[in-house]
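ok so I'm stuck.
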Amino acid sequence: MEITNLNDIERATFKARREMLRFGMALLFIIGVMFYAWARGGGSFLLIMATVIGGYMAMNIGANDVANNVGPAVGSRALTMTGALIIAAIFEAAGALIAGGDVVQTIRGGIISQDSVANADVFVWLMMAALLAGAIWLNIATAVGAPVSTTHAIVGGVLGAGIAAGGWGVANWGTMGYIAASWVISPVMGGIVAAAFLYFIKRSITYQSDMMAAARRVVPLLVAFMAWTFTTYLMLKGVKAVLDVSFATASLTGLAVAVVVFWLVKPRVERQSRSGETTAGSDKPRVNTMFTVPLIFAAGLLSFAHGANDVANAVGPLAAITDVLGGASLDKSAHIPLWVMMVGAIGIVVGLALFGPKLIRTVGSEITELDQIRAFCIAMAATITVIIASQLGLPVSSTHIAVGGVFGVGFLREFLKSNYARMVDEIQSHHPAGDQAAIEAFLRRFDKAPIHEKGNMLEILKREAKARENPELFSSQERKGLRKVYRKELVKRSQLLKIAAAWIITVPASALLAALFFFAIRGAMLP
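replied:
not stuck anymore, here's the structure
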């Protein structure tokens, strides 16, 4: 066989070999968890199986959910994929171990009635089935490239296994109604907040004639506001197990941090805005670079808060099983032992390193094109939406918020591009036919004009064209077709449909799987 043919075979099989390597390393982690649980639990079969399932769940959380924290930063090129994985791994593990939650209720969030699991054996089987169902559904979603809510996956698992154990009457349908509402509330709120920030930045900086002067005024305020919201968010959500503070205390602390950050950032932005020679078309990339460092901090802090909150999805049910197998009462809260928390923290890191890049690329670059400014808006949406929703008592999902933010900035760009296309069309249609030089000269003045002057320029142009009785060059149908071209190229509709479908079926799919697993486990364990 020729050497060139061998090289072709090597390249064709490289992807398969890489996937097998990842699978092998994941299997080694699961085997390690099994022996670790055997050493800690004295050979209890149920504890070993529950720990293995908990480790598998943690791996899938790392593979799927962490993309929401670092995906925009990678897509905007503020971070490389390797840098994002390192930052996320460190801060996810730190959040899980330092502030990963002191207590997790044995019956998660009131999803099912406590009376329905009065038997300790039934409770253990139920939690094992819920964990396994949630983990498998996350695995499926990761394989197809759909970021889904891990909280919804485990809630669906508990619901399905609970119904299998005690019938339809055991479910708390009011709580499930709140969860269903979050399918709409979370992405809509995230999209609106992200789009609002992007529009503000465009109006206050990138649409200004002197972009650098505007950046010197506005960017320090934006970064300081980011420090305020992130500090408040971390104190309310990220370190609640270590430090219990009120919203007022968290907000005032965040304000103090914001003041310090403002005075630290202001001279740096001043230097960045004045460094180098200003050339035509170079201002916007320079403004983008001003958001690089804040995005790196955002990726780390969001990962810390995620590790602190979502590790409970993997090890909360495992901690409850550990307590019950140790003889604790079902009506008490389950304290998470350090060794259980270690399983969750390490599992998240392993899943992120092995399988996380696929979802990071989906969130960061396969929905819409991101730059640092847009990624900054998505990070702001992730924190502000959670803070507002928590104060209003609204159910939200951090996954849905982040992905909704990505779609929000994409659809805003579509609207603005379509609106600009309409304005250019109007400029062309109200100039004398064939006067291309006049059209180009007007467009140059139009592009350089501040945002508030553009409307005045169009009105004057229309009045002049009306006085000349100049007909429009394009029909309304042709202008509609032009706007469709802009919309189609900025947001991938196929990703929108795929992700929305995955969100809708997450709870029912994990519930059905959990019910099947519960019957299988009960059938295997009963004499």
